[in-house]
């Protein structure tokens, strides 16, 4: 399913609708260029999980863990990793198969290690400033 958002607030709102339908053990693989909105949509997911902390890009720390009222969020940025082996050495499997939701930015680098049921979200900036957001491998996509 494809959505278009025209502002950061709309992208966050879509993240909230997605997050409301997530359950423990769900893995979201984010794809998109730099500044495509991967962290912005994750902020909305975090709101829906009851996370009060400010969500920021985990680019330099690789993994940010947030405790929410509904469940935890494991927010990963694997851009700086060499590949799947580095990902596994971080202990990512514990989070992927854990009791929370796992969001992985730059997921293309570790795709071979992701579960079959992974939800794929691809964000593409458009020339008019909007964002095209494609969601694949998920039957419970929220209506706009």
- What is the alpha-carbon Rg in Å? 14 Å
Structure classification? alpha/beta
**Helicity range:** 10-25%
Biggest sheet character? 7 strands, mixed
Shape: globular
Strand residue content: 25-35%
Structure report:
The structure is a single chain. With about 140 residues, this protein is α/β, with parallel strands linked by helices. It is about 25% helix and about 25% strand. The protein has helices spanning about 10-20, 40-50, 85-90, 90-95, and strands spanning about 1-5, 25-30, 65, 75, 100-105, 120-125, 130-135. The protein has a seven-stranded mixed β-sheet with strand order 1-7-6-2-5-4-3. The longest helix is centred in the first third of the chain and has 13 residues, at about 10-20. The protein is globular. The termini are close together.
Q: What is the gist of this entry?
A:
The protein is α/β, with parallel strands linked by helices and 144 residues long. It has helices at residues 8-20, 38-48, 84-89, 92-96, and strands at residues 2-5, 27-32, 63-66, 73-77, 101-105, 119-125, 131-136. It starts with a strand and ends in an 8-residue tail after the last strand.
